[in-house]
Amino acid sequence: MKTNFLKFGIASFLVLSFSLFSCQDDEKLFDNENEEMELAQQASEGDDDSDDVLEVANDVEEGLVSGSITGRVSGEYGCATVTHNAETKTVTIDFGESCVGPYGRERSGKIIITYSGTLGDNVGNRIITFENYVVNNKSVSGEIELRDISVFYVAGTEEIDYIQNVKKLNALTITFPNGESVVYNGSRTRKWTGGILDGDITNNEYEITGEIIGTWSTGRVVTHAILSPIISHWSCRANDSGFARIDGKAEVTIQGFVTRSRSVNYAYPAELGSGVCDNQILITIGNRSFVVTEVD
Fold first, then answer.
1. What is the pTM of this model?
2. By residue range, what is the domain housing residue 59?
3. What is the Cα–Cα distance from 57 to 128, expressed in whole angstroms?
């Protein structure tokens, strides 16, 4: 009887221990999914913020050339001051201490554009840097390089079909309101397919491919690779509908986590169809999906 009781006790202990460890593993897995979701979300938003900078820079440069932003030396861009120095080939957009400007976003600090050719030539490389720049409580530093710019024409005409360039992120650092930060490196190829050089910042359309790597202040390293081209319509951002990105899919890889599929779907909700403005994306981690709503 003692032997049977001992066997029963050991078996019960093993079952109980297995159950406890299983619960702990499930809880750990759930915590990891939450962290993975947050990392995927921040990677997508941070990449979108770098596109926002390029839109503002391009619009200012077009405005200086066309004269819609008055004066070749200085002028007002909303509540920002724009200064062009032809000798140093730099354009400075100074948002001051607080400026609700393009796309209704609150900005402060400076965006500094250095060009290699002539202002508005659309083919010379651009280097964009920052000075105490903050957008919607997210600070931005580091460098964005716009290079390998090519103009493609409709066959047999002088009409521009699209302009293609490479957006290279060099230690582009975004610090979020919670104090966490991410440093981006890598390149995106951007095809400017709509609203080309028409002076209207709200109707630009792009097709984006490529891969970037983000290193978080927590030590996490995240790769954000585009699987199907991301379609970006800036009319969506201008209309306060959240993400400019309305179609396409990206794969997210996080070092140090269990190997499984992670994706960001920009064509969500599916019932709206692709190409429709909305403020949601769908992040899938393994077998679970999370709907993220852009609120800024």
1. 0.78
2. 34-293
3. 8
